[in-house]
Write a structure and sequence with these properties.
This protein has about 475 residues and is of the alpha/beta class. It contains 15 helices and 16 strands. It binds nicotinamide-adenine-dinucleotide.
């Protein structure tokens, strides 16, 4: 036992010690520990002390982004692979004194941790988030907020009961291009929205989730049983551990990994709560490497008319085998213009039709007899005076994100601002996070079961007559 661990155990309060004992005894058991208040108040002058759970690729990027904010300090990390704990101590521990454990519950038990970053594979998000909120920690949880639809409400309930701040991590909405898109749409710059399309294509092995596997990966250097968690039992397989996105037991496929960013952006810009009808199709076309999720998927979603917007259709696409020129943008199309944007920039194109419809050109007019043509012209001139025939010129407005913009840091900035203010009102709270996650998880359900999924975005429930998502998607061990 290291000296720092000894110190931390000595400083445990009775309440947190009880919470840990219960959690250790029942990692997924029915009796949950009571909510305990945060043991340390964050005052405006205090540093916010964070711990990162999951120190893989995004865990490192998230930690760096969090620490780019003033008065934030990393005090602990958890990960299941020893190499990543060692790496974290070197990268963030200064003198290697950073508290590091394979067991996230040891991190949650530390009274000096105010907030945790949950950056594990998707199947652990709900468990760790709920345990963290119960332990009185603020939570920044990576996208998608949950792995299965039935896990959304328990996370929301835990967040509400805890009174803590929670942010979900689709950081692109904190970029100025997304904020400009929202401003334009809300100002009515493109009129009434009728269609949205967004894609996230790739063509390379790393992009298709075949991340490098460390040479010392073995059951001795990592905690395979804990990795499995509530997923089905499976013998040790380093590919499953380090390339977990390729397996639906642990990940959420292209929908949960990438559609989630697209739909989060759309909900942010349009103030939408979500679609009512979701249909997906796709294929495993190229990366036939043992994965059980598709590498090409298109999802069509119907958004109903609400107080925030008219009805529109949305089409999302991921193609991991697009060998052509890739242009990953979101296009929001309205009856007076279109906004095409990514994190880097935005192009607004405006075009307003004249009142007069025009005639001739590619039209039936030339097929009329001469007397009918004459009469048609006379009636047209009477109905449409010259001013009704002028179309507004096409306008194009371009917005470029400021050089070096740090949307990721800003997303954490919003989280920390709310932690300090004692507010639960982050830009991507769990209700927003779940309203984005549920339709993309429904995309998987539609794909695997070849059916249309009906969803109620207001109540966040499957529509009556549907089998509950839990019975089809979730396999409990
Ligand atoms: N917001 C974004 O742009 C973005 C980008 C990439 C990944 N992500 C999300 O971040 C999460 C992690 O993705 P990644 O690419 O970093 O994966 P990764 O495989 O690189 O890292 C995951 C780490 O979690 C650890 N881990 C697994 N179960 C754990 C547990 N129970 N307790 C503690 N540690 C555990 C693993 O040992 C591993 O080191 C995913 O949910 C992913 O969707 C978000």
């Amino acid at each position: 036992m290291t000296p720092s661990r000894r110190t931390f155990i000595r400083t445990l309060t009775a309440a947190s010690a009880l919470a840990v004992t219960e959690a250790v005894a029942r990692p997924f058991g029915p009796v949950a520990p009571a909510y305990i208040p945060n043991l340390r108040r964050v005052s405006p002058n205090d540093k916010i002390r964070i711990a990162t759970i999951g120190m893989g690729i995004q865990g490192n990027y998230d930690t760096q982004a969090a620490l780019r904010n003033p008065d934030v300090e990393l005090v602990a990390v958890a990960d299941l692979y020893d190499g990543r704990l060692e790496h974290a101590k070197t990268a963030f521990g200064k003198d290697k004194n950073l508290f590091a454990s394979r067991d996230f519950r040891e991190v949650l038990a530390r009274p000096d941790v105010d907030a945790v970053l949950v950056v594990t594979p998707d199947h652990w998000h709900d468990h760790i988030t709920i345990e963290a909120l119960k332990a009185g920690k603020h939570v920044y949880c990576e996208k998608p907020m949950v792995q299965h639809i039935n896990e959304g409400k328990p996370v929301i309930d835990a967040w509400k009961k805890s009174g803590k701040t929670m942010q979900v991590g689709s950081q692109r909405i904190s970029s100025s291009a997304f904020q400009e898109a929202k401003r334009m749409v809300q100002a009515g710059d493109i009129g009434t929205i009728n269609y949205i399309e967004s894609n996230s294509d790739r063509f390379n092995a790393i992009g298709a989730w075949n991340y490098s596997i460390p040479t010392d990966a073995s059951p001795a250097t990592l905690d395979w049983d804990r990795f499995l968690g509530d997923a089905p039992k499976h013998p040790f397989d380093a590919k499953r551990f380090f390339r977990w996105r390729n397996y639906k037991d642990y990940g959420t496929g292209v929908a949960g990994d990438l559609f989630i960013h697209l739909i989060t952006g759309v909900h942010f810009v349009t103030n939408s709560m979500g679609p009512t009808r979701i249909y997906s199709s796709g294929n495993l076309a190229y990366w036939k490497d043992g994965r059980d999720v598709p590498d090409i998927m298109t999802s069509v979603m119907d958004y109903p008319k609400t107080a925030a917007h008219d009805a529109f259709q949305m089409v999302l696409r991921v193609n991991f085998a697009n060998a052509g020129k890739i242009s990953n943008v979101t296009r929001i199309i309205g009856n007076e213009g279109q906004i095409e944007f990514s994190e880097e920039n935005l192009i607004l194109t405006k075009r307003k039709l004249p009142i007069a419809p025009g005639y001739n050109g590619y039209d039936s007019f030339f097929t009329f007899t001469e007397p009918v043509k004459e009469e048609f012209k006379r009636q047209y001139d009477a109905k449409y005076p010259p001013e009704t025939r002028v179309a507004e010129p096409v306008k194009e407005v371009r917005f470029d994100a400021p050089k070096g913009e740090d949307a990721h840091g800003a997303h954490f900035g919003d989280f920390f601002k709310n932690v300090r203010a004692g507010s639960q009102g982050t830009i991507e709270d769990p209700v927003f996070g779940f309203r984005a996650a549920a339709p993309v998880l429904a995309s998987n359900e539609s794909y695997f079961q070849q059916k249309v999924v009906h969803w109620n975005p207001e109540t966040m429930t499957m529509k009556t007559g549907e089998a509950p998502a839990s019975t089809v998607a979730k396999k409990k061990k």
